[in-house]
Design a protein that fits this description.
It holds the Pfam family DUF8040. By secondary structure, the chain is an alpha/beta fold. The chain has 11 helices and 5 strands; from the N terminus they run H-H-H-H-H-H-E-E-E-H-H-E-E-H-H-H. Helix 2 (20-33) packs across helix 3, helix 3 packs across helix 4 (72-86) and helix 4 (72-86) crosses helix 10 (264-283). It is globular, with a radius of gyration of 21 Å.
Length: 333
């Protein structure tokens, strides 16, 4: 029987999305830091390869030298075990981390400034829908405005499309702005602002304008600084759209037409596992799949609807402060 080690490198990457050296490092990390173990019948590396192939394709293919003798039930169990291992706190904190120091944030700021001529930016935020099978409980919470069941997953990425934060806890019926206000990254960004650090994320018009979250100015006068700001904002914010495109093209189980046939909690773990693997792939400088679309229009369009904001005095004050900070930013262009 042909060994997977004998598989040509390009074919290996096509099937499993990682190259052999990155795959071996991943297996070692999983062995050292998680409870994932192989058995006499199914070695750890076969479990990992089986899971990688499912995440890369969204189907239970049988690959010579890997899973041709495994039943679908066994294959599914391997996928669940590896996904759980990739969700281990040690792996998550190693590969998905929001910039914690002034120095880390300054490096990202400088790159956004260099690439897009926009100061103060440390990340781009948006949500994307991950299609799931109709859940048996709270079905209404997962039925999105596009007419299918999904998770609405919030992510923040940097200038290199690295995922720095992810929230995959909410169903497709939840609005982006609600996920933002419920996330841990919102109070963290608020804290940075209140500590005197002028940094912000870029979000679309589905988000509330805040001193730490910059949104585009709709219908800005032609030739104005506001139009210049919005043009640069849109250009910089393509980072998160390209991040979603690369994530879903490399790990195709997340594509709209694949539909994860799992409980929402498991679908959430699969999404997190793919984000870990996305960052591992970037770290290894692996080329994007050759069939990635030139432009990927994501299926989340909450930007076309008004933000659902309560009219508390605190929210009004934050909006006023947000607009003042936006005016300050525009004055620096």
């Amino acid at each position: 029987m042909e060994s997977v080690e004998d598989m040509p490198e390009l074919l290996f990457v096509e099937h499993f999305r990682l190259n052999k050296s990155t795959f071996r490092r991943l297996c070692n990390d999983l062995r050292v830091h998680t409870s994932l173990r192989g058995s006499k019948e199914i070695p750890l590396k076969i479990k990992v390869l089986t899971a990688l192939n499912f995440l890369a394709t969204g189907s239970y293919q049988r690959i010579v030298g890997v899973s041709q003798n495994l039943t679908q039930r066994t294959t599914s169990r391997c996928v669940r075990q590896v996904v759980d291992a990739l969700n281990h706190p040690t792996l998550m904190s190693k590969w998905i981390q929001f910039p914690q120091t002034v120095q880390e944030r300054s490096l990202i700021k400088e790159e956004f400034q260099r690439k897009y001529n926009l100061p103060g930016v440390i990340g781009c935020i948006d949500c994307t829908h991950i299609a799931i099978v109709k859940p048996s409980e709270e079905e209404h919470a997962f039925y999105n405005r596009k007419g299918y069941h999904s998770l609405n997953v919030q992510m923040v990425c940097d200038h290199n499309l690295k995922i720095m934060n992810i929230n995959a806890k909410f169903g497709g019926a939840t609005h982006d702005s609600h996920i933002w206000s419920s996330s841990l990254v919102e109070p963290y960004m608020r804290h940075l602002h209140e500590s005197g650090e002028h940094v912000w994320l870029l979000g679309d018009s589905g988000y509330p304008q805040r001193p730490w979250l910059m949104t585009p100015i709709l219908n800005a006068p032609h030739g104005s600084r506001e139009e210049l700001y919005t043009t640069r904002h849109v250009q910089a914010r393509t980072c998160i759209e390209r991040c979603f495109g690369l994530l879903k093209t490399r790990w195709r189980c997340l594509l709209r037409d694949r539909v994860l046939h799992y409980h929402p909690n498991v679908a959430s773990k699969i999404t997190l596992a793919c984000c870990v693997l996305h960052n591992i792939s970037l770290h290894a400088h692996l080329p994007a799949p050759s069939d990635i679309p030139v432009t990927t229009v994501d299926d989340n369009d909450d930007s076309s609807t008004q933000t659902t904001q309560s009219t508390t005095t605190e929210n009004r004050n934050e909006l006023i402060r947000g607009r003042a900070m936006l005016n300050y930013l525009i004055s620096r262009l």
